Amino acid sequence: MSVGSRPIVPSRLAPGGVAHGSRKPATSTIGSYIALTKPRIIELLLITTVPTMVLAEGAWPSTWLVLITLIGGTLAAGGANAINMYVDRDIDRLMKRTQNRPLVTGAIAPRNALIFALCLEVAAFAVLWVGANLLSAVLALSATAFYVGVYTLWLKRTSRQNIVIGGAAGAVPVLVGWSAVTNSLSLTPWVLFAAMFFWTPPHFWALAIKYADDYRAANVPMLPAVVPFDHAVRQMIGHTIAMVACTLLLIPVADLGAIYSVTAVVLGAAFLASTIVLAKRPTAAMSMRVFGFSITYVTVLFGAMTVDVLL
């Protein structure tokens, strides 16, 4: 396997080490519908929602509101992911890591999948509107509309910048969490949004490096599949720098203390260092280490933010 002018050396990965990689097909109808929602991706989105709610409240918010926001966010993200699978079922057949998805195996009929997805979106809007406020409901629905309309239907198959622009949908949960608490938006959630916006490309491109051949087979112009490896990693480094800058800007904007500040500096340096190492060691194993660390990065960073606020 190769990317552009630099070779990518395949290596054995530990089972379960790929959050977005291939999986065994679901063995039940219920399991198949759950698989449509891409639950592992939803987990990652929710990791950013609750800490943002804590930051917005300046303390632990109403537990009921947290639960309602998580339920609404889960339904909205699950519906968006299911629509994505419905639209992409043709190219999912061509990519090894997606060939076990329910619409490819025939476990669920496309029409049923689409109805299921739309029902999830209606439920998400209702839950957030009734349980939180209209602003959070509109923001959640707008994320779905952007993810499906801009990323899935337009950019994914036409532009190497697909995940750069389309990834904005994955940054919306911080806006939903903030607005659920305050019924408004201020500079702080937009800085968090920017941090997640810049985090998405290096996170996803690290995965795409390993699966570049899959994207070529499906004729999807994901950046690492269509440009030389060096160029792709330079883009990753640039986005990582921007992401770290946003996380540091959050310190004065949100008046955060030492716990978050030290964590942001250390994790940011580690993330940047990992992308630089990837440039020097262009292997599938190294790209997956960067991918895995990117998930750890978000989890620990937002966890530190929560602890900083609560203490």
TrEMBL record:
Catalytic activity: heme b + (2E,6E)-farnesyl diphosphate + H2O = Fe(II)-heme o + diphosphate
Subcellular location(s) of the protein: Cell membrane
Source organism of the structure: Ilumatobacter fluminis
One Gene Ontology term of the molecular function aspect: protoheme IX farnesyltransferase activity
GO cellular component: plasma membrane
Name of a matching Pfam family: UbiA
HAMAP family named among the record's database cross-references: CyoE_CtaB
The keyword Cell membrane is annotated on this UniProt entry: yes
Protein name: Protoheme IX farnesyltransferase
Stretch list, region Disordered: 1-24
Note from the entry: Carbon 2 of the heme B porphyrin ring is defined according to the Fischer nomenclature.
EC class: transferase
